Request: fold
Amino acid sequence: MKPDERLTAYPTNLHSTRPTHPATPPARVSRRGLIKVLGAGAVGAAAGVGGTLALSASSADDTAGQVVPFFGSHQAGIATPAQDRLHFAAFDLSSAATRADLVALLVAWTNAASQMTTGSDVGTGAVTGPPAAPPQDTGEAFGLAAARLTLTVGFGTSLFVGAGGTDRFGLAARRPAALADLPAFPGDALEPARSGGDLCVQACADDPQVAVHAVRNLARLARGTAAVRYSQLGFGRTSSTSTAQATPRNMMGFKDGTSNIKAEDNAAMDTHVWVRPAERPSWMAGGSYLVSRRIRILIEPWDSTPLTEQERVIGRAKGSGAPAGRNAEFDPLDLAARNTSGEPVVDAKAHVRLAHESHNDGAVLLRRGYSFVDGTDALGRLDAGLFFLAYQRDPRTQFVRIQTSLAGKANDALNEYIQHVGSGLFACPPGVVPGQYWGQALFE
Reply:
């Protein structure tokens, strides 16, 4: 890409990689500030000043701590303390899309994301653009705080090598070796319509409407170039990604993610999550690899299972979260302990045993999944479970190693009560600085 084609401002024209606004963005006011300070009449007047009014959550009346910085060496939404809500979407590029279209989309998405994560509207906003034209922002988050919104983008395997081995965008030679297709695991019941995708967007926020608004506007910007393949709403994080967070419970009622990597552990993050500068390809340095899995919990059988059996299956006490045979949640697992009958205290097929790093050559993951409930199926059973999200330096030696230990009823006892129905694998490039766009180094 030529230097003058790099992102330098806030374009609204998706089909051009060149900025459509000057390099210095216009003055901004917050959504809430616009409503409270200017009033409805002034909003209309402001739209006519310079033709563009970009909005942001930067005024003094916005709640402190609501904005997670968008720009940085790593993408936000990975090490960020996990928010309470999720809207995840996978996109497929249209058959007519070109490499230039893909770059233009990423430029437009980067601009929109940098605005929305500050609590701003997209482009000229929901109410301040030309009255005779469709608004550039859909408006359902108008007046809401940023709610710690983060947007994280990933590139799927099909972006590099399409159906039949096609190299649609000239990226096959730049596909990372770590982005190898996941193998088929015993017990998988994957639905193609809920799996894969050329691109993914992970929107996390503490307000569900803010997360939905973000994906909705990125999908609107993508029209004609890419369309949503599938999406998933999530609530109630199922892992703690910060030492400041309490361990949450999943839809099975158990504390989940007790042993998760914590973002404050820089050594663990560097070892297990971030791609290192010396690793190839260089465009992924500072990035990470995301595995997504839609895991349906067979709620009705689980709810009919005695407490002692539930605790045997998981390997932890349901109330305290303590490992079997221990007293407190964060007590270390004692996988060698035996009871008076000589049987392992932590059952041989317990989930925590088979998922433990000592059982998987030291492999660990940064998990930040969410619970979901998507109504009921045709038989009246609750369609609920875990939308599993895990970041890592190399899926081949991390997720694949761990899932190989867990998969199949002959291994993890939990498999009697769960079913993997969706799957995705994405390369999440490093963060961006002002003047760049998501994944820019891949295209240069």
